[in-house]
Amino acid sequence: MKRLEALDAARFLAFCGMVLVNFRIAAEVAPGTDWANTLITALEGRAAALFVVLAGIGVGLSRVTAGVLLRRAAFLFVLGLFNMMIFEADILHFYALYFVVAAAFLTASPRGLWLGVIAVVALAVLANLVFDYDRGWDWTTLTYADLWTLPGFLRNTLFNGWHPVLPWAAFLLIGMAIGRSQLETTCMQHRLIMWGFGAVVLAIFPQVLASDPNLVAYLGTKSIPPGPFYILAGAGTSCLVIGLMLKLWPRIEKLRLGPVLTAPGRQALTLYMAHILIGMGVLEEAGLLDGSLTAPQIIAYALVFCAASSVYSLLWFRRFKRGPLEALMRRMTEPRRA
Questions:
Q1: N or C: which end of the chain has fewer CB within 10 A?
Q2: For residue range 62-115, what is the model confidence (pLDDT) as tens digits?
Q3: Among 191, 198, 179, which residue's Cα sits nearest to residue 110?
Q4: Residue 1 has pLDDT above 50, yes or no
C-alpha cells in the first residue's frame, strides 16, 4: 500500500503540540489566561492523543506480527525508562504498554477493536471508582512521590500517570480501527471530519450539565483526570485533524510544503527524544527552567525548535532512509529486515 504522507504530516503536527506542552511543563511557566497559555492548554492531552491514534493507524495499516510489536514495546519501554530519569512526563514507556495491549487485538475485527475501546474505558471508570486518583501526586509541583517504587510505578503507569494505560490504550485501539478503513477515499475522509467534529461537540455537554465539582472534573474534557468524555474529545480531535490533513493533502503538496511536514513526521521518535535531551537541555543550561519564561516566550522557543527539527530531518533524509532511533529500533526488533 502506498504510504499516506498526510499521516506523517499529522504526526509532525502532533509532535509540535507535544513540544509546546512539554516545554511549558519543564520551564514551569506560570499559568494564565493570556492567548499563549490558552493555546498551550488547548493542546494538553490533544496533541499526545493524536500521536497515539496515529501510532494505532500505523499498526492497523501494517502487517506487523505480535512478536515484532512486543519487541518494539520492549525497546520503547527501556528507552522510556531512560527518558523518565530526565523528564518524568515521558510518554514512551506508556506507548510500550499500549503496544502490548494492541498485540492482543492484532487479528481483531473492527467491531472487536471498538469493543476493546469500550472495555478499556469502562475499566478506567471502574478504577476511578475504586482507587484514589490523587494518590502519589503533588499537584502544586506536578511531582509523583513514589514513582520509583514498584507499587507507585504500577499505579502511575496503569491508572493515574500522565498517560495511563487505562484509558489511554483506547486511543491506540481507535487508531487501529481507523487504520482498517479506506483512508485514501474522499468518503472516509469526510466521515473522519464529521465524526471528529461531532465527537468534540458531544463531549462538551456532560460537564455543562453536571453540578458536583468532582463530577464536573471527571466528566470534563481535560486529560487529568482522563474521563470517558476526555477520550471522546481526544479521539474526536484526532479524527478531525487526520481527516482534514488527508483531505487537504493534495493542496498542501501543490504549495510544496509536503516534505517540510513529512520528513520530521517520519522520525518522530528521534525528535521526541531530541526535544527533551536537546530542547530542554538548552533551556536548562541557560538557567531557564525556573519559571522565568512567559508563555509567549516558550511558544517562540518551541516553534524555533520545531522549525529546526524540520530542517534537520530534510537534511537527514538526503542520505538516510530512516531516523537514527527509528533505524536502531528496526535493527533491534526486526534484524532480518533492517
A1: N
A2: 889 999 999 999 999 999 999 999 999 999 999 999 999 999 999 999 999 999
A3: 179
A4: no
Residue 109 CA to chain centroid, in angstroms?
24
Neighbours of 30 (CB within 10 A): 12
How large is the average pLDDT for residues 226-232? Answer: 95
Choose among 45, 61, 32, 21: nearest CA to 200. 45
Gap between the Cα atoms of 114 and 217, Å rounded:
25
Average pLDDT over residues 11-27: 96
Handedness of CA 337, 4, 308, 244 (dihedral sign): negative
Q: How far from the centroid of its chain's Cα atoms is residue 22's Cα? A: 12
* C-beta of residue 91 within 8 angstroms of C-beta of residue 55: no
How far lies 334's CA from each of 43, 71, 224, 281, in Å? 34, 8, 36, 32
Radius of gyration of the chain (CA): 19
Three cell numbers at 204? 462538551
Residues 6+ positions from 80 with CB-CB distance below 8 Å = 90, 91, 92, 93, 94, 95, 96
User: Which of 2-11, 112-121, 153-162, 288-297 is predicted least confidently?
Assistant: 2-11
Whole-number Å distance between alpha carbons of 67 and 106: 11
Q: In degrees to the nearest 10, what's the CA dihedral of 83, 337, 50, 90?
A: -10
Distance between CA atoms of 60 and 188, rounded to whole angstroms? 15
The three grid cell numbers given for residue 216, joined into one nine-digit string: 464536573
Contact 223, 113 (CB under 8 A): no
CA distance 53 to 239: 9
**Which residue intervals of the chain are DSSP H helices?**
5-26, 35-43, 46-61, 66-84, 92-103, 110-130, 150-155, 165-179, 186-209, 213-218, 228-254, 258-265, 268-274, 281-285, 295-316, 324-333
d(CA 277, CA 82): 11
Q: DSSP letters along 193-219, please?
A: HHHHHHHHHHHHHHHHH--SHHHHHHT
Q: Report pLDDT for 337.
A: 66
